[in-house]
Amino acid sequence: MIKEEHKERELVDRLLLKNQASWKELYNLYAANLFTVCSRYVREKEDAKDILQNSFIKMFHSITEFEYRGIGSLRAWMSRIVINESLKHIKKYAKLDFTTELGTLADTVTDEEPDLEQIDESDLLELIATLPIGYRTVFNLYVFEEKSHKEIANLLDIAENSSASQFHRAKSLLVRKLKNHKRSAI
Question: pTM for this one?
Fold first, then answer.
């Protein structure tokens, strides 16, 4: 663990010197993971690639603002940039319109939770990707980024109760999709 932290700290020090080889190393270490983060928000691979590239450019320009706080802080900082760039893209191109999605599914919470152990992680991520954009965005922010509905509302410029409603609807729709997936796998 100490060796890992030392390696990460050393990489950050080289990044601060704008060492080109260290930026390539950073990209090779984290690009695949960050692309996955980006793909949770944006379905089109080309858009996700563009967002990832813009995110690395932003990282390069703002590395001096990064404060190393131990192992994992670099990944967290980069993920935050990728998520923010993804949200910027969604707001600009996807036109998040929660009002049109509100009538598509009742505000119900299902008592029956699916057995997530029975589904492959990549299949689950694919099912999440099929959610309508508003549902998917709120779901990802709440579940993966562990944002509160108040934080999500601020990020997306929506009402807090809209965030909660979108999450519950996303969860209900995802449960349906999981049940269908389970049936089709049999």
Answer: 0.82
Give 49-60 pLDDT, tens digit per residue. 999 999 999 999
Q: Find all residues with CB under 8 Å of 75, minimum gap 6, and list them.
A: 30, 33
Residue 70: strand, helix, or coil:
coil
pLDDT in tens, 73-114: 999 999 999 999 999 999 888 766 565 444 455 444 454 555
What are the CA-CA distances from residue 132 to residues 45, 92, 116 (Å)? 17, 16, 21
- Cβ atoms of 123 and 177 within 8 Å: the answer is no
CA–CA–CA angle 73, 75, 77 (5° rounding): 65
Between the CA of residue 162 and those of 31, 84, 150, 154, what are the distances in Å? 33, 20, 10, 11
The CA angle 32-37-39, to the nearest 5 degrees, is 90
The Cα–Cα gap between 41 and 43 comes to 7
Two tokens, residue 12: 């950050």
